[in-house]
Amino acid sequence: DAGVIQSPRHEVTEMGQEVTLRCKPISGHNSLFWYRQTMMRGLELLIYFNNNVPIDDSGMPEDRFSAKMPNASFSTLKIQPSEPRDSAVYFCASKDDRFSTTGELFFGEGSRLTVL
Amino acid sequence: KQEVTQIPAALSVPEGENLVLNCSFTDSAIYNLQWFRQDPGKGLTSLLLIQSSQREQTSGRLNASLDKSSGRSTLYIAASQPGDSATYLCLSGAGSYQLTFGKGTKLSVIP
User: Fold this and answer.
1) Yes or no, beta carbons of A50 and B99 under 8 Å apart
2) Of the candidates B96, B105, B84, B83, which has an alpha carbon nearest to the alpha carbon of residue B24?
3) CA nearest B49 in A: which residue?
4) Could you tell me if B40 and B31 are in contact, meaning their C-beta atoms sit under 8 angstroms apart?
5) Hey, is the C-beta of A30 within 8 angstroms of any chain B C-beta?
6) Which residues does chain B have within 8 Å of residue A105's beta carbon, measured at their own beta carbons?
7) DSSP string over B42-64
8) Of A26 and A97, which is predicted with more confidence?
9) Which of A43, A101, A104 faces B34 most closely, judged by CB atoms?
């Protein structure tokens, strides 16, 4: 399997612009997570999907952030409008929870976002 | 609320040494414990996953142990190499998404 695939790997944009990050989970995995990593705060869970349904979005910082999972093989995280404090590495991760909640978590390579 | 602590935050050792990385957690009601490594500018790579019913897992030069009663897990690296230099993170799992990361230990192996 190709693993969790994220795009773009790097994004540089100006404040106020819309940013869309994309994720393709591992085939067969039914749980998908979006994380944000910064030096100051470490890894923060933004949102968790199970079977394409958002279960917990309490980590989404504010209304400027939104996430969708239209099907089992694709998810997006959108920031509109973007601000400099959104600069971070955004990770997508997936695991197989179909038969157990104790599955191994796999991460993508991340999308490094810089907002000028 | 689960809290996961990794001490020390950074560790430097000479090549060839055996070393132990520590991970402690406050709530012992976990389902599993997972260890990752993260290289600069990269994603997290899963190293070992220990289920709550297990005491340890081994992969090559790596051995991870889990002691739920004491709230501790350790990652043992034998015969360390410069290529082992990375940040190592532990993750406690207590459900589908009740996942708590430690802040990591940055390991430097000096040739």
Assistant:
1) no
2) B105
3) A104
4) no
5) no
6) 34, 46, 91, 93, 99
7) S-EEEEEEEETT-SEEEETTEEE
8) A26
9) A104
Q: How many CB atoms lie within 10 A of CB A51?
A: 12
DSSP state of A24: E
What are the pLDDT digits (tens) for B42-87?
Answer: 999 999 999 999 999 999 999 999 999 999 999 999 999 999 999 9
Measure the N-to-C terminal CA separation of chain A; round to a whole number of Å: 36
More confident of the two residues A57 and B98: A57
CA A74, CA A94: separation in Å to the nearest integer? 11
Amino acid letter for position B103: K
Query: Which of chain A's residues have a Cβ under 8 Å away from the Cβ of B95?
Result: 101
Burial code (b: 16+ CB inside 10 Å, e: under 16) for B57-92 equals: beeeebbbbbebeebbbbbebeebeeebbbbbbbbb
Give the closest-approach CA distance of B22 to chain A in angstroms: 18
Comparing CB atoms, the residue among A42, A48, A56 nearest residue B101 is: A42
Whether residue A20 is predicted with pLDDT greater than 70 in this model: the reply is yes
Which B-chain residues 14-43 have CB contacts (< 8 A) with chain A?
A: 31-32, 34, 36, 41-43
- To the nearest 10°, report the CA torsion of A27, A33, A39, A42: -120
Q: Which amino acid is at B61?
A: R
Looking at chain B, the number of H-run helices and the number of E-run strands are 0, 11
